[in-house]
Amino acid sequence: MNLESTKVVVDKSAEYIFNALTDVKNFEKLMPENIAKFEVIDENCFEFGLKGMPEIKLVKKEATPHSKIVLGAASSKLPFTLTGNLNALDANKTEVQLLFEGDFNPMMAMMVKGPISKFIETLSQNMHKL
Known about the structure:
The chain is of the alpha+beta class.
């Protein structure tokens, strides 16, 4: 299952956005209002929970300076990645798009598609809070 957020333009440099996203504690600023839990495990990992959803632990998997950050599920039960693609438009404007890729059975995919779509859309819309 592959999902894409809309592209958002943030009035910050790609370097600033990249550095903010590589610091996992900053993801708390991007979370939806219905967050029930957010905990930094270490510099590469955090766990969060939304009301009515299971808690998810994300680990930083890959970081390409100023252009891409990849987070992945720490559990192999629900294998997925969340990729942030950064595109510098100029010195102080960056286009950000989030991509979700998950390997789910059809039933699971049907159940999680709506909530995950809404979740990544909220994350991207909150990028200006970084």
